[in-house]
Structure formats: structure tokens, C-alpha cells
Amino acid sequence: MTDVEEVEVVVAHHERATLRVGEVFLKIDADQTRTDVEVKAMAMAPIPTPELLWRKPPVLALAALPGSALGRLGEPSTASSAAWAAAGAAVRVLHEATLPPWPGRSLDEKASSLDSECTWLVANDVLPADLVTRNREVAEAALRPWKPVFMHGDLQIAHVFVDGGEITGVVDWSEAGQGDAMYDLASLTLGHPEHLGDVIVGYGADVNHDVIRAWWSLRSLTSIRWLVEHGFDPSSPGCEIDVLKSQL
């Protein structure tokens, strides 16, 4: 590799780290089964993904994507309505693709996680009990049988890259598998409900707004402990705790 001016730490926590070195992203993961899923999912996905340059466990090297992320949780998105609609269209293409051969998390696993995380939030005085209770009631709408689709599984806006009104690629496929289409749409619009309409226009199919709203609550409730334990702040403006408050 030629000399570069600096190494940028994109994200780092106890489980994995991503570094940017010039035009190459180096992903280091303690669990190589997640990397296995990422490599397989990118190979199967019918939408743009980063070029896989090489893999030497525990490191996966990917080429940088052109453009910039659709946005960041907790920050206003500067992307156009056309870009958000293009993201919705790309998600629809993914959801109509052949299912990956491995399963995603089951309905029972999601329900069990919701139960344990809500108990932890209240027992440790992380959030007021009434805030947890109300959002748990909202979240219950997500816990229904769904027709499985090829789901990205962690489709937060920072993982979708755009250039103008076009999608240049989607990154971080380690949670991909069979799952609920509404979960991907909810992940994409978490903290940015003002762009849900644009995403739905691009998606071009009937969506259940109540289920998307339910996934906003469920994803936020079940992620707070992990975020805290890995050095992130879910109480930052516009992030998970604000999402829960906005559901009331």
C-alpha cells in the first residue's frame, strides 16, 4: 500500500473497528461469522455494494464508495428528497431479490430481546418506566408474522451512500439475512421521520406505517444497553432516547 497522509478511525468499539486508509476501508471484527455473512450478502445483493479488495482474517478490505452518506442519526440530513426516494427504490430491489440461504433473527428472538431490554432499562433507572411502557406497547405491533425478504438488517442512514439523487452503494452487511421488510424501512428512517414519505415514494409498495413506527420503538429500546456498553451515547440529541420520547 502506498503512503497515505493519515489513518481515520471511522468507528471502534469492543466488537469491531473500521479504519479508513486512503481509499480503502479496513474492517476488523472479532467474530468472523459476521464477516462471512457480510461477504456472502454483498455477493448476492442486487444493489451497489463496496468492492471487496481482499480478506485476511480478522481484516476485510473494501474500496471506498463515491459520494457521501445519506445522513447521520442525530443530525439533519442534507440529502435531497430524490436521494431519499432512490434509497427507497434500492431497498425495494433488495427485498424482491432471492432470499439468502441463512435465516435472520426469529420473531421469538425479537420478542425475548424486547422483554429483557425493557426490564433492564427500568431496573437500572436508565429511562422512566412510563416511557419504556408506552414504547413497549407501540413496539408490540412489530411482533407479528411477516413474509421474509432479503433484509439488510442494519440499514441506518450512515450505511447508505449517495451522489446527488443516485445511490452509489450500501455498506455494513453483517446483519443481513431473511427478515421483515418494514424493519429495513424503519432502520433507514429512524430519527428522520420527515423523510419517510420520500422513502415510500421510492419503495413503491404498500407499507404499514404503524409497523414502521413500532420498529422505531423496538429498535431504540433494544439498542440502548449495547450503545452504552460500547461507548456510544443514545441520549444525544436526535438519537434513540429522543426517538422514544417522540413516540409519545
UniProtKB/TrEMBL annotation:
It comes from the Bacteria. SUPFAM superfamilies: Protein kinase-like (PK-like). This is Aminoglycoside phosphotransferase family protein. Gene3D superfamilies: 3.90.1200.10. Residues 40-194 form the Aminoglycoside phosphotransferase domain.
